[in-house]
Amino acid sequence: MEEWVDVLDEDGRHTGETILKSEAHRKGVFHPTVHIWFYNTQGEILLQFRSPLKKTFPGFWDVSVAGHVGAGETVEQAALREIREEIGLSLKVQELSPVGIFKSIQRHDNGIVDCEYHHTFLCKLNHKPSSLVIQEEEVTEIRLFHLEVLDKLHLSGDKKVKLVPHDKSYYEAVSDAVRKRLQG
């Protein structure tokens, strides 16, 4: 079933319009997404390996959980829904810690133009990855990586371990937020 998303302007403000997600991607229309980064007390973060069936960045490591905000849905509702769908956890909004909102424009060879505002959150992982139930259409694997590995991957562009590309400032903001949470 085709998803509807809210249209945002260039500055991330709601316009009051909605559009089909596929049309937003075809036309390069801004719309909201959620990114949820799970971390544990050992300084590790949970990454997902994107399914080879994904239209963008198949076979790349990515944020723990991510997805589109449905039309009329709040970012918090979307975050909790995506967490349930992608890794099988039912959480409360109080467990989400906002990191920030990040503008992203990515043009793909298949014609998709992702113009998104990533509403980004942290969440403490209180479960072993092996106990999580992944959504196999979206995610092939999940794995814990030490935060230092994330720092090195996004800076080096290591071709053996492909990480979805984002602005350096995005990854730095996530890393800094996790480190602050770990320090207490």
From TrEMBL:
Keywords: Hydrolase. Residues 29-167 form the Nudix hydrolase domain. Coiled coil: none annotated. Pfam families: NUDIX. The keyword Cytoplasm does not apply. The keyword Glycoprotein does not apply. This is Nudix hydrolase domain-containing protein. The lineage of its organism: Bacteria, Pseudomonadati, Bacteroidota, Flavobacteriia, Flavobacteriales.
